[in-house]
Write a structure and sequence with these properties.
- There is one protein chain.
- By secondary structure, the chain is of the alpha+beta class.
- The chain has four domains: about 5-140, Tumour Suppressor Smad4 (Sandwich), CATH 2.60.200; about 165-240, no CATH class; about 245-420 and about 445-575, 3-Layer(aba) Sandwich (Rossmann fold), CATH 3.40.50.300; about 585-635, no CATH class.
- The protein is about 20% helix and about 25% strand.
- It contains twelve helices and 40 strands.
- The strands form twelve sheets. The chain has a seven-stranded mixed sheet. A six-stranded antiparallel sheet has the order 1-11-10-9-6-7.
- InterPro entries: FHA_dom, SMAD_FHA_dom_sf.
Protein backbone atom coordinates (compact mmCIF):
# COMPACT_ATOMS: atom_id res chain seq x y z
CA UNK A 1 0.00 0.00 0.00
CA UNK A 2 1.41 3.34 -1.09
CA UNK A 3 1.67 6.21 1.42
CA UNK A 4 -1.43 8.42 1.52
CA UNK A 5 -0.87 12.08 0.61
CA UNK A 6 -2.79 15.23 1.51
CA UNK A 7 -2.50 18.93 0.79
CA UNK A 8 -3.46 21.32 3.58
CA UNK A 9 -4.05 25.01 2.93
CA UNK A 10 -6.51 26.02 5.66
CA UNK A 11 -5.76 26.23 9.35
CA UNK A 12 -6.16 25.07 12.06
CA UNK A 13 -6.03 21.51 10.71
CA UNK A 14 -6.73 18.71 13.18
CA UNK A 15 -5.09 15.32 12.88
CA UNK A 16 -5.94 12.25 14.94
CA UNK A 17 -7.77 8.94 15.24
CA UNK A 18 -11.31 10.30 15.74
CA UNK A 19 -13.55 10.56 12.69
CA UNK A 20 -14.27 14.28 13.17
CA UNK A 21 -10.64 15.32 12.51
CA UNK A 22 -9.59 16.92 9.25
CA UNK A 23 -7.01 14.20 8.66
CA UNK A 24 -7.98 10.86 10.19
CA UNK A 25 -5.43 8.13 10.97
CA UNK A 26 -7.27 5.09 12.37
CA UNK A 27 -4.37 3.60 14.28
CA UNK A 28 -4.55 2.80 18.01
CA UNK A 29 -1.18 4.46 18.60
CA UNK A 30 -2.67 7.79 17.46
CA UNK A 31 -4.79 9.71 19.99
CA UNK A 32 -8.36 10.82 19.23
CA UNK A 33 -7.09 14.38 18.71
CA UNK A 34 -3.35 13.92 18.41
CA UNK A 35 -2.09 17.21 16.99
CA UNK A 36 -3.09 20.48 15.33
CA UNK A 37 -1.41 22.33 12.47
CA UNK A 38 -1.92 26.01 13.34
CA UNK A 39 -0.71 29.36 12.06
CA UNK A 40 1.92 31.13 14.11
CA UNK A 41 3.39 34.63 13.80
CA UNK A 42 3.48 35.97 10.21
CA UNK A 43 1.53 32.91 9.03
CA UNK A 44 4.23 30.42 9.91
CA UNK A 45 3.01 26.85 10.38
CA UNK A 46 3.27 25.34 13.84
CA UNK A 47 2.54 21.74 14.82
CA UNK A 48 1.13 21.47 18.36
CA UNK A 49 0.79 18.23 20.31
CA UNK A 50 -2.71 17.99 21.89
CA UNK A 51 -1.73 16.04 25.04
CA UNK A 52 -1.42 12.85 22.99
CA UNK A 53 -0.56 9.60 24.74
CA UNK A 54 2.27 8.50 22.46
CA UNK A 55 3.54 11.91 21.44
CA UNK A 56 5.27 13.36 18.38
CA UNK A 57 8.93 12.61 17.75
CA UNK A 58 11.50 14.43 15.64
CA UNK A 59 14.29 11.89 15.51
CA UNK A 60 14.59 10.65 19.09
CA UNK A 61 13.32 13.88 20.66
CA UNK A 62 9.70 14.19 21.77
CA UNK A 63 8.31 17.61 20.82
CA UNK A 64 5.21 19.43 22.04
CA UNK A 65 5.40 22.39 19.63
CA UNK A 66 7.36 22.54 16.40
CA UNK A 67 7.73 25.20 13.71
CA UNK A 68 7.35 23.67 10.23
CA UNK A 69 9.85 25.76 8.27
CA UNK A 70 11.37 22.99 6.14
CA UNK A 71 10.65 19.44 4.99
CA UNK A 72 10.57 17.13 8.00
CA UNK A 73 10.11 13.48 8.93
CA UNK A 74 8.11 12.95 12.11
CA UNK A 75 6.76 9.98 14.02
CA UNK A 76 3.25 10.18 15.48
CA UNK A 77 2.54 7.09 17.57
CA UNK A 78 3.80 4.36 15.25
CA UNK A 79 2.88 6.29 12.10
CA UNK A 80 5.50 8.07 10.00
CA UNK A 81 4.73 11.50 8.54
CA UNK A 82 6.74 13.17 5.81
CA UNK A 83 6.02 16.91 5.66
CA UNK A 84 6.99 18.80 2.52
CA UNK A 85 6.48 22.58 2.52
CA UNK A 86 5.69 24.59 -0.59
CA UNK A 87 8.99 26.41 -1.17
CA UNK A 88 7.30 29.48 -2.68
CA UNK A 89 5.34 29.88 0.54
CA UNK A 90 8.50 29.36 2.54
CA UNK A 91 10.11 32.33 0.81
CA UNK A 92 7.04 34.43 1.68
CA UNK A 93 7.20 33.36 5.29
CA UNK A 94 10.87 34.00 5.86
CA UNK A 95 11.05 37.37 4.10
CA UNK A 96 7.65 39.10 4.25
CA UNK A 97 7.19 42.68 3.18
CA UNK A 98 7.11 45.11 6.11
CA UNK A 99 3.63 45.81 7.50
CA UNK A 100 2.07 43.37 5.02
CA UNK A 101 0.54 40.14 6.28
CA UNK A 102 2.02 37.12 4.54
CA UNK A 103 -0.44 34.90 2.66
CA UNK A 104 -1.35 31.60 4.28
CA UNK A 105 1.20 28.92 3.34
CA UNK A 106 0.30 25.47 2.08
CA UNK A 107 1.87 22.07 2.49
CA UNK A 108 3.01 20.63 -0.77
CA UNK A 109 2.42 17.20 0.74
CA UNK A 110 1.75 15.35 3.97
CA UNK A 111 2.74 11.77 3.34
CA UNK A 112 1.37 9.32 5.92
CA UNK A 113 2.96 5.89 6.12
CA UNK A 114 0.91 3.75 8.53
CA UNK A 115 2.77 1.44 10.83
CA UNK A 116 6.17 2.40 9.40
CA UNK A 117 7.71 3.96 12.49
CA UNK A 118 9.85 2.27 15.11
CA UNK A 119 12.34 4.15 17.25
CA UNK A 120 14.03 3.05 20.40
CA UNK A 121 13.42 6.35 22.13
CA UNK A 122 9.73 5.70 22.55
CA UNK A 123 9.19 2.03 21.82
CA UNK A 124 7.78 1.39 25.28
CA UNK A 125 5.06 3.95 24.81
CA UNK A 126 4.15 3.04 21.23
CA UNK A 127 4.75 -0.68 20.87
CA UNK A 128 1.89 -2.07 18.78
CA UNK A 129 -0.63 -4.31 20.49
CA UNK A 130 -1.06 -7.93 19.49
CA UNK A 131 -2.80 -8.08 16.17
CA UNK A 132 -1.42 -4.77 14.91
CA UNK A 133 0.72 -5.04 11.82
CA UNK A 134 4.09 -3.44 11.29
CA UNK A 135 2.95 -2.21 7.89
CA UNK A 136 -0.09 -0.76 6.19
CA UNK A 137 -1.95 -4.07 6.34
CA UNK A 138 -2.23 -3.65 10.09
CA UNK A 139 -5.05 -1.13 9.66
CA UNK A 140 -8.38 -2.50 10.76
CA UNK A 141 -10.32 -0.01 8.63
CA UNK A 142 -9.43 2.00 5.52
CA UNK A 143 -8.29 5.60 5.85
CA UNK A 144 -11.49 7.67 6.04
CA UNK A 145 -10.07 10.64 4.13
CA UNK A 146 -9.72 10.15 0.39
CA UNK A 147 -6.18 10.36 -1.03
CA UNK A 148 -5.88 13.47 -3.15
CA UNK A 149 -4.78 14.07 -6.69
CA UNK A 150 -3.53 17.58 -7.31
CA UNK A 151 -3.89 20.19 -4.61
CA UNK A 152 -7.43 20.46 -3.22
CA UNK A 153 -7.54 21.81 0.31
CA UNK A 154 -8.58 19.69 3.26
CA UNK A 155 -11.93 20.48 4.86
CA UNK A 156 -11.37 22.35 8.10
CA UNK A 157 -13.66 22.68 11.09
CA UNK A 158 -12.92 25.94 12.89
CA UNK A 159 -12.13 25.56 16.58
CA UNK A 160 -12.74 28.07 19.32
CA UNK A 161 -9.19 27.41 20.44
CA UNK A 162 -6.51 25.51 18.60
CA UNK A 163 -3.60 25.43 21.00
CA UNK A 164 -2.49 23.06 23.73
CA UNK A 165 -4.51 25.16 26.16
CA UNK A 166 -7.78 23.88 24.67
CA UNK A 167 -10.23 22.48 27.22
CA UNK A 168 -13.24 20.25 26.55
CA UNK A 169 -16.02 20.80 29.08
CA UNK A 170 -17.02 17.42 30.61
CA UNK A 171 -20.60 18.70 31.04
CA UNK A 172 -21.56 20.23 27.65
CA UNK A 173 -18.49 19.19 25.56
CA UNK A 174 -17.76 22.77 24.49
CA UNK A 175 -14.12 23.32 23.49
CA UNK A 176 -12.52 26.55 24.68
CA UNK A 177 -9.18 28.09 25.60
CA UNK A 178 -7.90 28.39 29.15
CA UNK A 179 -8.22 32.17 29.13
CA UNK A 180 -11.98 31.79 28.49
CA UNK A 181 -12.56 30.10 31.87
CA UNK A 182 -15.18 31.78 34.02
CA UNK A 183 -14.72 31.94 37.79
CA UNK A 184 -17.37 31.33 40.43
CA UNK A 185 -18.08 34.23 42.77
CA UNK A 186 -17.87 33.46 46.50
CA UNK A 187 -19.34 36.53 48.14
CA UNK A 188 -22.82 35.72 49.41
CA UNK A 189 -24.31 38.79 47.77
CA UNK A 190 -23.23 37.73 44.28
CA UNK A 191 -26.10 35.34 43.60
CA UNK A 192 -28.06 34.79 40.42
CA UNK A 193 -26.64 33.34 37.21
CA UNK A 194 -28.35 33.67 33.80
CA UNK A 195 -27.53 30.05 32.86
CA UNK A 196 -27.86 28.19 36.17
CA UNK A 197 -30.67 30.16 37.79
CA UNK A 198 -31.43 32.60 40.60
CA UNK A 199 -29.96 30.44 43.38
CA UNK A 200 -26.56 29.85 41.76
CA UNK A 201 -23.45 31.89 42.43
CA UNK A 202 -22.55 34.32 39.68
CA UNK A 203 -19.99 33.34 37.06
CA UNK A 204 -17.63 36.06 35.84
CA UNK A 205 -14.63 36.69 33.61
CA UNK A 206 -11.93 38.00 35.96
CA UNK A 207 -9.72 41.03 35.57
CA UNK A 208 -7.94 40.82 38.96
CA UNK A 209 -6.10 37.93 40.57
CA UNK A 210 -4.46 37.08 43.88
CA UNK A 211 -0.77 36.24 44.02
CA UNK A 212 -1.80 32.56 44.18
CA UNK A 213 -3.57 32.93 40.82
CA UNK A 214 -7.15 32.90 42.10
CA UNK A 215 -9.64 35.36 40.60
CA UNK A 216 -11.10 38.21 42.66
CA UNK A 217 -14.84 38.84 42.41
CA UNK A 218 -16.31 42.37 42.55
CA UNK A 219 -16.52 42.11 46.34
CA UNK A 220 -12.78 41.35 46.52
CA UNK A 221 -13.10 37.71 47.60
CA UNK A 222 -10.66 35.08 46.34
CA UNK A 223 -12.41 32.65 43.95
CA UNK A 224 -10.49 29.44 43.13
CA UNK A 225 -13.34 27.55 41.44
CA UNK A 226 -13.70 27.72 37.65
CA UNK A 227 -16.58 27.09 35.28
CA UNK A 228 -17.28 26.43 31.60
CA UNK A 229 -18.00 29.64 29.61
CA UNK A 230 -20.95 27.97 27.85
CA UNK A 231 -22.86 25.91 30.43
CA UNK A 232 -21.40 27.69 33.51
CA UNK A 233 -21.02 24.36 35.35
CA UNK A 234 -18.03 23.93 37.63
CA UNK A 235 -14.95 22.18 36.24
CA UNK A 236 -12.56 20.82 38.90
CA UNK A 237 -9.02 22.16 38.73
CA UNK A 238 -7.50 18.74 38.06
CA UNK A 239 -9.83 18.28 35.08
CA UNK A 240 -8.61 21.58 33.65
CA UNK A 241 -4.96 20.57 34.04
CA UNK A 242 -5.07 16.95 32.83
CA UNK A 243 -6.40 16.11 29.35
CA UNK A 244 -9.59 14.05 29.47
CA UNK A 245 -10.31 10.51 28.38
CA UNK A 246 -14.04 10.17 27.72
CA UNK A 247 -15.82 6.85 28.12
CA UNK A 248 -19.51 6.11 27.52
CA UNK A 249 -21.50 3.17 28.88
CA UNK A 250 -24.52 2.28 26.74
CA UNK A 251 -27.20 -0.33 27.31
CA UNK A 252 -30.87 -1.14 27.44
CA UNK A 253 -33.15 -0.22 30.31
CA UNK A 254 -32.42 -2.25 33.49
CA UNK A 255 -29.44 -3.99 31.86
CA UNK A 256 -27.29 -3.32 34.94
CA UNK A 257 -25.23 -0.31 33.80
CA UNK A 258 -25.17 1.28 37.27
CA UNK A 259 -24.16 -1.99 38.93
CA UNK A 260 -21.41 -2.49 36.35
CA UNK A 261 -20.12 1.07 36.74
CA UNK A 262 -20.15 0.77 40.54
CA UNK A 263 -18.28 -2.54 40.55
CA UNK A 264 -15.83 -1.39 37.90
CA UNK A 265 -14.77 1.81 39.69
CA UNK A 266 -14.51 0.01 43.03
CA UNK A 267 -12.34 -2.71 41.49
CA UNK A 268 -10.16 -0.19 39.66
CA UNK A 269 -9.41 1.66 42.91
CA UNK A 270 -7.75 -1.51 44.16
CA UNK A 271 -6.50 -3.31 41.06
CA UNK A 272 -4.67 -0.42 39.38
CA UNK A 273 -2.71 0.57 42.48
CA UNK A 274 -1.92 -2.93 43.66
CA UNK A 275 -0.98 -4.47 40.31
CA UNK A 276 -0.13 -1.75 37.78
CA UNK A 277 1.41 1.14 39.79
CA UNK A 278 -1.37 3.51 38.69
CA UNK A 279 -3.28 5.78 41.04
CA UNK A 280 -7.04 5.95 40.45
CA UNK A 281 -8.78 8.54 42.63
CA UNK A 282 -11.81 10.83 42.60
CA UNK A 283 -11.12 14.06 40.73
CA UNK A 284 -13.88 15.73 42.69
CA UNK A 285 -15.97 14.28 45.53
CA UNK A 286 -18.95 16.47 44.66
CA UNK A 287 -19.32 15.19 41.09
CA UNK A 288 -18.78 11.58 42.17
CA UNK A 289 -21.08 11.67 45.21
CA UNK A 290 -23.80 9.49 43.68
CA UNK A 291 -21.32 6.87 42.50
CA UNK A 292 -19.58 6.90 45.89
CA UNK A 293 -22.97 6.29 47.53
CA UNK A 294 -23.49 3.32 45.20
CA UNK A 295 -20.09 1.89 46.19
CA UNK A 296 -20.95 2.22 49.87
CA UNK A 297 -24.28 0.46 49.33
CA UNK A 298 -22.73 -2.52 47.55
CA UNK A 299 -19.26 -2.87 49.09
CA UNK A 300 -19.26 -0.97 52.42
CA UNK A 301 -22.73 -1.59 53.78
CA UNK A 302 -22.95 -1.79 57.56
CA UNK A 303 -25.15 -4.91 57.42
CA UNK A 304 -23.68 -7.37 54.92
CA UNK A 305 -26.74 -9.62 55.12
CA UNK A 306 -29.33 -6.94 54.38
CA UNK A 307 -31.02 -7.13 51.00
CA UNK A 308 -30.14 -3.88 49.16
CA UNK A 309 -30.54 -2.44 45.67
CA UNK A 310 -29.28 0.53 43.69
CA UNK A 311 -31.94 3.00 42.65
CA UNK A 312 -32.78 3.08 38.99
CA UNK A 313 -31.17 5.75 36.82
CA UNK A 314 -33.98 8.18 35.99
CA UNK A 315 -34.54 10.26 32.88
CA UNK A 316 -34.23 13.42 34.98
CA UNK A 317 -33.21 14.31 38.52
CA UNK A 318 -30.02 14.21 40.51
CA UNK A 319 -27.96 12.58 37.77
CA UNK A 320 -28.52 15.59 35.49
CA UNK A 321 -27.82 19.32 35.52
CA UNK A 322 -30.50 21.63 34.12
CA UNK A 323 -29.10 24.74 32.45
CA UNK A 324 -30.50 27.53 30.28
CA UNK A 325 -28.67 27.65 26.96
CA UNK A 326 -29.86 29.16 23.69
CA UNK A 327 -33.07 30.18 25.51
CA UNK A 328 -33.87 26.52 26.23
CA UNK A 329 -33.78 24.49 29.43
CA UNK A 330 -31.39 21.66 28.68
CA UNK A 331 -30.61 18.55 30.73
CA UNK A 332 -26.93 17.58 30.79
CA UNK A 333 -25.71 14.32 32.37
CA UNK A 334 -23.48 14.68 35.41
CA UNK A 335 -20.07 13.18 34.61
CA UNK A 336 -18.13 11.01 37.02
CA UNK A 337 -14.49 12.11 36.98
CA UNK A 338 -11.39 10.25 38.13
CA UNK A 339 -7.75 11.27 38.16
CA UNK A 340 -5.31 8.76 36.71
CA UNK A 341 -1.61 9.22 37.48
CA UNK A 342 1.37 6.86 37.58
CA UNK A 343 2.47 5.99 41.10
CA UNK A 344 5.97 7.09 42.04
CA UNK A 345 7.11 3.45 42.10
CA UNK A 346 6.02 3.03 38.47
CA UNK A 347 9.06 1.64 36.58
CA UNK A 348 8.94 4.47 34.01
CA UNK A 349 7.61 7.22 36.25
CA UNK A 350 9.76 10.06 34.86
CA UNK A 351 9.05 9.13 31.25
CA UNK A 352 5.28 8.56 31.51
CA UNK A 353 4.26 11.01 34.25
CA UNK A 354 2.98 13.57 31.76
CA UNK A 355 1.38 11.27 29.17
CA UNK A 356 -0.38 9.08 31.76
CA UNK A 357 -1.74 11.89 33.93
CA UNK A 358 -5.33 12.06 32.69
CA UNK A 359 -8.86 12.82 33.81
CA UNK A 360 -11.14 9.87 33.11
CA UNK A 361 -14.69 11.06 32.45
CA UNK A 362 -17.49 8.45 32.66
CA UNK A 363 -21.19 8.79 31.82
CA UNK A 364 -24.13 6.69 33.01
CA UNK A 365 -27.40 7.35 31.20
CA UNK A 366 -30.83 5.87 31.76
CA UNK A 367 -31.42 3.14 29.18
CA UNK A 368 -34.48 5.01 27.91
CA UNK A 369 -32.21 7.80 26.62
CA UNK A 370 -30.81 5.42 23.99
CA UNK A 371 -34.19 4.32 22.68
CA UNK A 372 -35.36 5.64 19.28
CA UNK A 373 -37.09 9.01 19.46
CA UNK A 374 -35.52 10.01 22.79
CA UNK A 375 -32.81 12.24 21.31
CA UNK A 376 -34.01 15.86 21.38
CA UNK A 377 -32.50 19.34 21.31
CA UNK A 378 -33.44 20.01 24.93
CA UNK A 379 -32.27 16.58 26.10
CA UNK A 380 -28.85 16.02 24.46
CA UNK A 381 -27.86 13.60 27.20
CA UNK A 382 -26.11 11.10 24.93
CA UNK A 383 -23.94 13.47 22.87
CA UNK A 384 -20.93 12.47 24.97
CA UNK A 385 -20.79 9.51 22.56
CA UNK A 386 -19.18 11.81 19.97
CA UNK A 387 -16.24 12.57 22.26
CA UNK A 388 -15.73 9.12 23.80
CA UNK A 389 -12.41 7.44 23.17
CA UNK A 390 -14.04 4.06 23.79
CA UNK A 391 -17.67 2.95 24.09
CA UNK A 392 -18.81 0.13 26.37
CA UNK A 393 -22.06 -1.47 25.17
CA UNK A 394 -23.62 -3.59 27.90
CA UNK A 395 -25.47 -6.58 26.44
CA UNK A 396 -27.72 -8.39 28.93
CA UNK A 397 -28.31 -12.07 27.96
CA UNK A 398 -31.21 -12.36 30.41
CA UNK A 399 -33.14 -9.88 28.24
CA UNK A 400 -32.62 -11.91 25.05
CA UNK A 401 -35.27 -14.57 24.33
CA UNK A 402 -32.78 -16.89 22.64
CA UNK A 403 -30.35 -16.82 25.55
CA UNK A 404 -33.24 -17.36 27.96
CA UNK A 405 -34.20 -20.55 26.13
CA UNK A 406 -30.70 -21.90 26.60
CA UNK A 407 -30.77 -20.93 30.30
CA UNK A 408 -34.26 -22.23 31.12
CA UNK A 409 -34.66 -24.30 34.25
CA UNK A 410 -32.79 -21.95 36.58
CA UNK A 411 -34.33 -20.11 39.50
CA UNK A 412 -32.72 -16.74 38.80
CA UNK A 413 -35.46 -14.06 39.12
CA UNK A 414 -33.94 -12.27 36.10
CA UNK A 415 -35.06 -15.24 33.97
CA UNK A 416 -38.65 -15.31 35.19
CA UNK A 417 -41.45 -15.15 32.64
CA UNK A 418 -42.56 -11.76 33.96
CA UNK A 419 -39.17 -10.09 33.51
CA UNK A 420 -38.78 -7.83 30.47
CA UNK A 421 -37.12 -8.95 27.23
CA UNK A 422 -35.79 -6.51 24.64
CA UNK A 423 -34.14 -6.42 21.22
CA UNK A 424 -30.86 -4.86 22.25
CA UNK A 425 -29.41 -4.49 18.76
CA UNK A 426 -31.99 -1.71 18.27
CA UNK A 427 -30.35 0.24 21.10
CA UNK A 428 -26.94 -0.41 19.50
CA UNK A 429 -28.22 0.73 16.11
CA UNK A 430 -29.72 3.91 17.60
CA UNK A 431 -26.40 4.67 19.30
CA UNK A 432 -24.54 4.24 16.00
CA UNK A 433 -27.02 6.41 14.11
CA UNK A 434 -26.66 9.26 16.62
CA UNK A 435 -22.87 9.18 16.34
CA UNK A 436 -23.07 9.24 12.56
CA UNK A 437 -25.70 12.00 12.54
CA UNK A 438 -23.80 14.42 14.78
CA UNK A 439 -20.28 13.65 13.57
CA UNK A 440 -21.04 13.69 9.85
CA UNK A 441 -19.63 10.17 9.51
CA UNK A 442 -20.24 8.84 6.02
CA UNK A 443 -22.25 5.71 5.34
CA UNK A 444 -19.99 2.70 4.94
CA UNK A 445 -17.15 4.23 6.94
CA UNK A 446 -16.03 2.67 10.20
CA UNK A 447 -15.12 4.55 13.32
CA UNK A 448 -11.62 4.51 14.79
CA UNK A 449 -13.15 4.15 18.26
CA UNK A 450 -12.82 0.77 19.95
CA UNK A 451 -16.26 -0.68 20.67
CA UNK A 452 -16.31 -3.13 23.58
CA UNK A 453 -19.37 -5.36 23.84
CA UNK A 454 -19.73 -6.32 27.51
CA UNK A 455 -21.86 -9.42 27.93
CA UNK A 456 -23.06 -9.06 31.50
CA UNK A 457 -24.20 -11.50 34.22
CA UNK A 458 -21.50 -14.04 33.33
CA UNK A 459 -22.36 -16.06 36.43
CA UNK A 460 -25.73 -16.90 34.83
CA UNK A 461 -24.50 -18.06 31.40
CA UNK A 462 -20.82 -19.01 31.82
CA UNK A 463 -21.54 -22.65 31.00
CA UNK A 464 -22.32 -21.59 27.42
CA UNK A 465 -18.87 -20.11 26.77
CA UNK A 466 -16.25 -22.52 25.45
CA UNK A 467 -13.19 -20.72 26.79
CA UNK A 468 -10.98 -20.57 29.86
CA UNK A 469 -11.69 -17.30 31.69
CA UNK A 470 -9.25 -16.96 34.62
CA UNK A 471 -10.18 -14.48 37.32
CA UNK A 472 -7.09 -12.31 36.75
CA UNK A 473 -5.89 -12.06 33.11
CA UNK A 474 -2.58 -10.50 34.10
CA UNK A 475 0.77 -11.75 35.36
CA UNK A 476 3.53 -10.33 37.51
CA UNK A 477 6.48 -9.01 35.51
CA UNK A 478 9.60 -9.17 37.64
CA UNK A 479 11.60 -6.96 35.29
CA UNK A 480 9.26 -3.98 35.79
CA UNK A 481 7.90 -4.79 39.28
CA UNK A 482 4.34 -4.41 37.98
CA UNK A 483 1.82 -6.70 36.36
CA UNK A 484 1.41 -7.10 32.61
CA UNK A 485 -1.93 -7.65 30.92
CA UNK A 486 -2.36 -10.95 29.07
CA UNK A 487 -3.76 -9.44 25.89
CA UNK A 488 -3.48 -12.73 23.99
CA UNK A 489 -5.75 -14.42 26.54
CA UNK A 490 -8.25 -11.54 26.41
CA UNK A 491 -8.33 -11.70 22.61
CA UNK A 492 -8.94 -15.45 22.71
CA UNK A 493 -11.82 -15.06 25.19
CA UNK A 494 -13.21 -12.31 22.95
CA UNK A 495 -13.05 -14.57 19.90
CA UNK A 496 -14.82 -17.42 21.71
CA UNK A 497 -17.55 -15.05 22.93
CA UNK A 498 -17.94 -13.64 19.43
CA UNK A 499 -18.54 -17.17 18.15
CA UNK A 500 -21.21 -17.71 20.83
CA UNK A 501 -22.98 -14.45 20.00
CA UNK A 502 -22.91 -15.30 16.29
CA UNK A 503 -24.74 -18.53 17.07
CA UNK A 504 -27.34 -17.03 19.44
CA UNK A 505 -27.83 -13.40 18.32
CA UNK A 506 -25.80 -12.78 15.13
CA UNK A 507 -27.41 -9.38 14.51
CA UNK A 508 -25.54 -7.94 17.51
CA UNK A 509 -22.20 -8.99 16.00
CA UNK A 510 -22.99 -7.74 12.51
CA UNK A 511 -24.31 -4.40 13.81
CA UNK A 512 -21.25 -3.80 16.00
CA UNK A 513 -18.70 -4.75 13.33
CA UNK A 514 -20.39 -2.67 10.64
CA UNK A 515 -19.65 0.38 12.82
CA UNK A 516 -16.21 -0.17 14.40
CA UNK A 517 -12.96 -1.47 12.97
CA UNK A 518 -12.09 -3.09 16.30
CA UNK A 519 -14.79 -4.77 18.37
CA UNK A 520 -13.90 -6.63 21.55
CA UNK A 521 -16.34 -9.02 23.24
CA UNK A 522 -15.81 -9.48 26.97
CA UNK A 523 -17.78 -11.35 29.66
CA UNK A 524 -18.33 -9.79 33.06
CA UNK A 525 -20.43 -10.08 36.18
CA UNK A 526 -20.94 -6.98 38.31
CA UNK A 527 -22.24 -9.01 41.28
CA UNK A 528 -20.84 -12.50 40.72
CA UNK A 529 -24.10 -14.18 41.74
CA UNK A 530 -27.83 -14.01 41.10
CA UNK A 531 -29.92 -11.43 42.96
CA UNK A 532 -32.81 -12.40 45.21
CA UNK A 533 -36.49 -11.49 45.11
CA UNK A 534 -37.63 -9.35 48.02
CA UNK A 535 -40.97 -10.87 49.06
CA UNK A 536 -42.02 -7.67 50.81
CA UNK A 537 -41.41 -5.21 47.98
CA UNK A 538 -41.53 -7.55 45.00
CA UNK A 539 -38.20 -6.08 43.83
CA UNK A 540 -34.92 -7.92 43.38
CA UNK A 541 -31.92 -7.10 45.56
CA UNK A 542 -28.47 -8.28 46.59
CA UNK A 543 -26.75 -9.11 49.85
CA UNK A 544 -23.38 -7.30 50.11
CA UNK A 545 -21.72 -10.36 51.66
CA UNK A 546 -22.36 -12.32 48.43
CA UNK A 547 -21.01 -9.74 45.97
CA UNK A 548 -18.03 -11.11 44.04
CA UNK A 549 -17.44 -9.16 40.78
CA UNK A 550 -15.82 -10.93 37.85
CA UNK A 551 -13.86 -9.28 35.01
CA UNK A 552 -15.43 -5.86 35.69
CA UNK A 553 -12.06 -4.07 35.49
CA UNK A 554 -10.78 -5.94 32.42
CA UNK A 555 -12.47 -3.67 29.81
CA UNK A 556 -10.86 -0.61 31.38
CA UNK A 557 -7.50 -2.35 31.68
CA UNK A 558 -7.63 -3.08 27.96
CA UNK A 559 -8.57 0.56 27.36
CA UNK A 560 -5.48 1.63 29.30
CA UNK A 561 -3.32 -0.94 27.50
CA UNK A 562 -4.34 0.52 24.12
CA UNK A 563 -3.05 3.91 25.28
CA UNK A 564 0.26 2.59 26.55
CA UNK A 565 -0.59 2.95 30.26
CA UNK A 566 -0.33 -0.81 30.89
CA UNK A 567 2.16 -3.21 29.34
CA UNK A 568 1.43 -6.45 27.55
CA UNK A 569 2.88 -9.76 28.73
CA UNK A 570 6.36 -10.12 27.27
CA UNK A 571 6.60 -12.59 24.33
CA UNK A 572 8.92 -14.89 26.25
CA UNK A 573 6.38 -15.14 29.09
CA UNK A 574 3.33 -15.92 26.96
CA UNK A 575 1.79 -19.38 26.88
CA UNK A 576 2.05 -20.77 23.36
CA UNK A 577 0.01 -23.72 22.12
CA UNK A 578 0.87 -26.15 19.35
CA UNK A 579 -0.85 -24.90 16.22
CA UNK A 580 -2.85 -26.85 13.65
CA UNK A 581 -1.93 -26.16 10.01
CA UNK A 582 -4.45 -23.76 8.54
CA UNK A 583 -4.94 -21.63 5.47
CA UNK A 584 -6.58 -18.24 5.39
CA UNK A 585 -8.00 -15.91 2.80
CA UNK A 586 -8.77 -12.25 3.37
CA UNK A 587 -12.03 -10.82 2.06
CA UNK A 588 -12.67 -7.22 3.07
CA UNK A 589 -11.96 -7.09 6.80
CA UNK A 590 -12.61 -10.81 7.46
CA UNK A 591 -10.18 -13.72 7.29
CA UNK A 592 -11.71 -17.02 6.23
CA UNK A 593 -9.64 -19.64 8.09
CA UNK A 594 -9.83 -23.26 6.93
CA UNK A 595 -8.97 -25.88 9.55
CA UNK A 596 -8.93 -29.70 9.17
CA UNK A 597 -12.30 -31.33 9.81
CA UNK A 598 -14.39 -28.14 9.63
CA UNK A 599 -17.21 -28.09 7.06
CA UNK A 600 -16.96 -24.33 6.65
CA UNK A 601 -14.12 -21.90 7.40
CA UNK A 602 -14.01 -19.75 10.52
CA UNK A 603 -14.63 -16.05 10.01
CA UNK A 604 -12.02 -14.04 11.90
CA UNK A 605 -12.06 -10.20 11.91
CA UNK A 606 -8.88 -8.45 10.82
CA UNK A 607 -8.31 -7.06 14.33
CA UNK A 608 -7.47 -10.58 15.60
CA UNK A 609 -4.49 -10.94 13.26
CA UNK A 610 -1.36 -11.72 15.26
CA UNK A 611 -3.19 -13.39 18.16
CA UNK A 612 -3.13 -17.12 18.81
CA UNK A 613 -6.73 -18.30 18.81
CA UNK A 614 -8.52 -21.52 19.70
CA UNK A 615 -11.23 -22.84 17.43
CA UNK A 616 -14.30 -23.14 19.72
CA UNK A 617 -15.51 -26.72 20.19
CA UNK A 618 -12.13 -28.19 19.25
CA UNK A 619 -8.58 -28.35 20.57
CA UNK A 620 -7.15 -26.72 17.43
CA UNK A 621 -5.13 -23.53 17.85
CA UNK A 622 -4.11 -21.23 15.02
CA UNK A 623 -2.87 -17.70 14.41
CA UNK A 624 -2.97 -15.28 11.50
CA UNK A 625 0.10 -13.26 10.70
CA UNK A 626 -0.75 -9.71 9.56
CA UNK A 627 1.29 -10.29 6.39
CA UNK A 628 -1.24 -12.87 5.27
CA UNK A 629 -3.28 -9.97 3.90
CA UNK A 630 -0.75 -9.56 1.11
CA UNK A 631 -1.61 -13.05 -0.18
CA UNK A 632 -5.33 -12.69 0.32
CA UNK A 633 -6.30 -13.04 -3.34
CA UNK A 634 -4.89 -16.55 -3.63
CA UNK A 635 -5.16 -17.67 -0.04
CA UNK A 636 -2.13 -17.96 2.20
CA UNK A 637 -0.84 -19.93 5.10
CA UNK A 638 -1.91 -18.48 8.39
Amino acid sequence: MEPVCYTVSRFPCRIGRAANNDIVIPDNSVSSLHAVFALGPQNSIVLEDQWSTNGIYLGTQRVSQLAIDRSLQLVMGRVKLDLALDMADLDTMTAPEPDIAAPAPTFRKISIQPGAASTGAHSAATSPPDGAAASAVGYRVPLPAEPIAGTPAATITKLTGSGRQGIICPHCWHRFDVDEFLFIARHQSLIGDPVLGADAAQRFLPSRFTKEGNALDVAGMSCPDMACPRCHLRIPQAASEMPPLFLSIVGATASGKSYFLTSMTWDLRNTLSRNFAISFTDTDAVNNQILNDFEETVFLHSDEQELVALRKTELQGELYNQVLMDNMLINLPKPFMFTITPAEHHPQYDQVRQSMSRTLVLYDNAGEHFEPGMDSVDNPTTQHLLHSDTIFFLFDPTKDVRFRRKLSGGNDPQLSVSSRVQRQEIILTEMINRIKKYSGMRTGRKTAKTLIILVSKFDVWKQLLDADVPREPWHWDAASNTCALDVALIKNVSFALRQLLEQVCPEVVSTAESFAGEVLYLPNSALGHSPELNDTTGMIGIRPQDVDPYWVAVPMLYFFYERGFIQNVRPENRVRHAETPATCKLSGDIYFVTLPGLKKPLQVPLSYAGSQLRCPGTDMWFSITPGAAAESEHGGAC
